[in-house]
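Lab meeting minutes (informal)
Scribe: AK
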Amino acid sequence: MTHSKRCSYLLFLSASMQSFPVASQDDVFASLFDMSLEELLSTPVTTASKQEESLRNSNASISVVSRQQIEQFGGHSLYEILERIVSVNSNYGVLTTITTRGSKPWTGLLQHLGLLNGRPFGNLSGAHNLYTSIPLSSIERIEYIRGPGSVLYGTNAYQGVFNIITRQGKSEGWQANQSIVVGSFDSQIIDASYVYKNNDLSGAINVLYTDIGGWDAQTFDPTTQTTFSKKAFQTDKTLHLDINYKALSLSHFRNLQQKFGNFWDAPEENYIPWSKLHPSTFTNLSHSYQFDNNWKLDSHYTNIKKEMEWSSEGIADDFIRIKSPLNIRLLEFNLSGDLSDNASLLVGAYHEHRRVYAASTIPDAKERYASLYAQIKYVVTPKLNVELGGQYVTSVELINNIDNQSDFVPRLGLTYHFNDVWTLKLRHAKAFRHPSSGERTIETPGIQKGTPDLRSETINTTEAQLFYQTDEKLFTATLYKNEEHDLILLRPSDDPNFALENKNSGEISSYGIELEYKHQLTAQWYAELSATHQRNEDKHGTENINLAPNNSFKFGLSYDDSRWQLGMYLLSYSKYHDNILFDPNRELVNPPADGYNWLTVKASRKFIVNDDNQLTVSLEIKNLLDESVYQPNDTPVFYPINTLPAREDLGAFLSVNYQF
């Protein structure tokens, strides 16, 4: 689709929507976008307990990102929004991923769980993730839990859980939020959201089209002693439909993603232009039945299909074929209500069916799991709340008739309110990640084999958080300690036909401190900042085994009045650690993974077209300091070099946003 055709398509959608009843301007902008910090902080969160509760009463290390923050500070993909959260980092390359509390990018793909309106999108593996495929115009807010979430969400809710809550129609008629973006790296983006409400019926149509020609990913050619570069291109096409009628809701998300797949091959004459194709479909049907004023039953059926396929433009496809389709079907019920004035209960059960089929290096496989979970919250005194929960999960069917495996993960939380503004939160929780079918059965001749009897990875986390909240300020200070066991790592294989094998062979201890501060300085000025220090070591006492920076600092400042909107955000990271810990023989061909400062600046001018329409023109500059960003290669068993290019150079982007 050409640029002119894409623009025509967007304008056609806008004109078509205008033929329906349109909400008044007061209704259109009476959303989180115009709320004060006080109102934002009083908005109930749901991710920590699957029930509405205040941020102050939620016993989790949870951060909330609003539409207003997204608009003020900019960004075109989800990973850019998430990396502004305390203790969260990202990279944008072959592996577009996030890490939490110093976790590793490669394993972090499987140790974070993304939710779309509270429903799991499946593990964020190389097959597909939400980091670039969700339309930002559709987001109402994001709730991000740092640390374990397995008690309520099962496998993969290990290092972090984020819940993308999309916009819903609040006023009768149509509302629209649509943008066209053009800019550096031959970037062209259409991002549009249309919501509708008519009595008990509401719905949304969310569209994303991203075409990035590519930034220059530079690596070194040891034969010519020169640097060469390849374009880190990416395309995303997303359609997300949401329909709600009374207590029934249906959601369908469809995305086709293609991206650059190789930074590593050198010398340049041997370079293979791998690219990855990631189609993904998510469908969810939910129903809520209210027994009375207290008790309700929520029922969900979720079907997820993902696929990863590598292509090399025919150069290597004949002898290396990588394709891995995955299907997840999840049936879940949970019952919630008040046992008394002081106690509330959530109980639930789910059945999960996972299937890998028609894969190139992984045999067809089916696995089934079942789980029971419960969480009770009890108000001991007006100042002291206790939260106790747990999940028991067991395999029902594993590949190759492997003996069934089970896990129990507990959670205990104490919340003590000193007064109206100061609160102390203490918690201990465990989380797990099931081995995937691929990790159990993969067979790539000469390279890698799976291990059928792998155990689940587990993490035990103990946290203490001091929480402070007023009408204009939010402050949290969090201390945490993690103990990870049975980590699934690639190790040298005992089988002479394979170089590597998946084994439960990793143990990591880590600890850190997180500081977070938000302040509505005046009606127009807003500031937020965070700082993190973390350390980690393996069972042999080797420090900084995750290679992540020990320190980070983040600062955002914005101004917003009726016409102008200005925002700047600085991400500052200390030096990464050398991957010599993984491979003493890795090649020192790329620049070292030094710390970097990533500065984004966005300026917007708003125009009222008429009583019901607003036009906003924005200029956004990313990496204003023009930093060259390399991060450690944490999988040198595949690619024996020191670092990989991780972020793009200086770029400028012009966007036009139209709302009615």
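Next up, CB showed the second protein from the same session:
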Amino acid sequence: MSWTRRFPAVPAALLAALLALLALLSLLAAAPAARAHEERPVALPDGTGSVPAYRAAEPDLLVCKTDRPAFERRVAGFPQELRQRNLDLYERCEKNGYRHLQQAVDAVDRPGMNIAVLPGLYEEEPSLPAPAGECAGLKAPNSSLGYQILSYEQQEKCRHNQNLVAILGKTNLQIEGTGAARTDVVIDAKYQKLNAIRADRSNGIYFRNFTAQRTTFNSLYVLAGDGFVIDDVLTRWNDEYGFLTFASDHGLYKNCESYGNGDSGIYPGSASNINDGRGYDVPRYSIEITGCRSHHNMVGYSGTAGDSVWVHDNEFDQNMGGASMDSAFPGHPGLPQNHARFERNLIHDNNADYYHYVADGTCAKPPVERGYEQGVVCPQISMPPGTGIITAGGNWNLYEDNWVYGHRRAGFFLSAVPAFIRGEEKWSKQTDTSHHNRYAGNVLGKDRSGASRPNGTDVWWDGQGSGNCWQDGPDGSTPGTLPQCGKERGQVSGASARLVGEPVKLTQLMVCADYNVQARKLPAGCDWYGARGLERVETQIAVAVAAVLLLVGGTLWWRRLRGSRLGTAASLCGLAGLALDVAGSTTPLAATPVPAVALLLLGLWWTGAGLALRPGRPWLARLTLLLGALTLLDAFDKAVLMIPWIPLSPAWVRALVAVVWVLWAVVASARPGPAAPARPAGPGDDPAGDRAPVPAGPAPALTTTAEPPAPTTRPDGTAA
């Protein structure tokens, strides 16, 4: 007899397990296409440039407005020396200066020139009109957000299709506001241009002391530049980014500020990938960011392929998320992201939640009507509100000596990003993130004065990756046990090397990624967008699993185990474990020991039930004992020590075995038969499998052909 006929539940159970795995893979394959900054194909700089130095020399070109009384009112409160300097510059500018910044940029005829912009509001009126003539009919691919992806030659030909001020192919140009504060010089795109200022292929450019604002994408955009400085500049009220530097090297942001942006205030996307293939020790970083504050944005700092960026002594606060690194968006040179270094930053109170502006239709209005100036922000991508530092698919990042506190969700958030999300289909690359991220020496849950400002949980990790480590003593983490960093970089104890994250967390990330601000689509089931209680996908999964196991386990106990004290006690453990598993899926308890205790009780249930099933159902008993062992192993993995050397979490194997067990238990419960005996079976039981029970009733009479025995006689002669 074939094994499929002897154990008919096995092929069906294996098929169900395969279908469950295929369903998860189809969920991954159906993940929404990533959207973000889309640009023409561009190569990273060759790295021969340098960070430009500030030049204090008198300006070569001047920009001012013609309303002298208004100008004098603007400078009236300046310190005397600065006021007099501006008045002197204005005298020169009235005679031979320019009224618009673009006019001055066009007059630059050699490297190393300085442009001074005097206090005033610059709306660049000649640049504002919509494209006309040939520029209105340019042929170029459209981005997912609707704007055209123009070539450099098209940008040269039609400079103001997308840009209020276009700086193309200039070398060592310096643009400086002459006011007492950066808000004294304001360059305003009035939501009529994609970019307020675009510097494209302009090496060695220096921006200082002004404000750029109100665009449908970026205030200040540096593209394909080798050498730039952004010094004491403010950007605000943009659909996407405040500062965007892309495919650039030798860059410096310092003393900057950004707020009111639908994506991030500071975005060093595709910074030059100079340290690819190195470990923690690197010769230099491509971009440095210091002394800046980014607040009241969707996220303070973000960097898709933000490679080799040194971020230190900044403040990221009052955003939805403090900072993020990712490998989630295609079309960015240098993926996967690697070698960001964060140190001595204040990352706190990033608990804003702007998704309600998408839900109520505010973000569907034209940008000029949305109310950005009154605090509206329209989040452009999916983002877990209440998070300090998010790493979505990054490698070799260092997070050391930062203050991370006051976040309602998590201080640190680490998850993998399969390569197909960014458009790479090779199987060999699907697990190339997140590895060797080091979180050490940070102050978690306390501000700089030492006052307690706890995070909801200090660490959220999907479990994927190798070489990741955290400092001792996080105040709450999920999983409950984490690999520990040693004193030296690269030293890790309790390390793991998982190819895939935890199944429930992976499902959550896929569900939460299905967000689209243009379509006003907020994923149901994701607490990033307001789902609570039973609305959350994690809790829904826990409730569904508990319902199935309660029904199957209860039936199995009634039909097979109610006569066994061990089986009954084990079933009570299972009932308590299922209740705690549902409770542990909720936000307040997810980072506590409750989920591990639930697994412990469920493991005891299956272990006890397996022992009780051995007399009558030995093969089902063996499968049940295997499931119990895997569940106990999962509890150990999550609460005591992550098991090294295994490519998958025990949760994956446990889930597949549980599918087989459920089907087998249903079949076993459906077959007629008595409850399991309270005593062990005798030696006559069939050891080869689940034998059919013997029908109840009187024993049948035996038949024989032997002669009846001869009658006996008592001593008194009577017949016996």
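CB comment: The longest strand covers residues 226-238.
No objections, moving on.
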